[in-house]
Amino acid sequence: MISQLHCFLLIANHTGGLYFFTKKNENMERKRSGQDIDPVMLCKFVLDGSGKKIGESVSVDHDVLIVKSGSRFLGVPLKHVEPTEKTLLVKGLIDFTKAYELGEKWRKESYREMTEHDGPEKQEKRF
Predict the structure, then answer these.
(1) For residues 74 and 58, what is the distance between their CA atoms, to the nearest angstrom?
(2) What is the C-alpha separation between 96 and 62, in angstroms, rounded?
(3) Residue 52 CA to chain centroid, in angstroms?
(4) CA distance 103 to 94
(5) Read out DSSP for 88-125?
(6) Is the pTM of this model over 0.70?
(7) What does the pLDDT profile of the chain (127 residues) look like in tens digits?
(8) Domain boundaries in the chain?
């Protein structure tokens, strides 16, 4: 009886440890994939350290905030972004060369412009 209980406790401890270890990895993957993004970070104006407007936040890709600045996209690491009440403030200096590279990478991977619109006759067929 004691050996069965001891064996059960060892198996439960081992299985429970695997469960918690797996759960931690799932949480880390979810954060990396952007599923736990705070919606407060989106659709806000982004300011640099001197208060100059850089653009507007449009997306978060892993740990990079995507900012639409004119017709271009910038990527700013989230660790350098501080949310305030109505805007987002970028702490420190921005390396615009690297920011343009990150923004362009995001645009190529996930941004799609609408080039054609369905006419009224096509819309009627869908419903």
Answers:
(1) 10
(2) 19
(3) 24
(4) 13
(5) EEE-S---HHHHHHHHHHHHHHH---------HHHHHH
(6) no
(7) 556 665 565 565 555 554 444 444 544 444 444 455 667 789 999 999 889 999 999 999 989 999 999 999 999 999 999 998 899 999 988 899 999 999 999 999 886 766 666 555 555 555 5
(8) 1-36, 39-110
Report the largest interatomic distance among the alpha carbons of the chain, rounded to a whole angstrom: 77
The CATH number corresponding to 39-110 among 3.40.50.1360, 1.10.150.170, 3.20.20.70, 3.10.20.840 equals: 3.10.20.840
Tokens at 61, concatenated: 């890709």
Instruction: Please list, in sequence order, all residues whose beta carbon lies within 8 angstroms of the beta carbon of residue 65, skipping any fewer than 6 positions away.
Output: 41, 46, 57, 59, 75, 76, 77, 78, 81, 88
Beta bridge partners of 56: 45, 68
Q: Are 57 and 66 in contact (CB under 8 A)?
A: yes
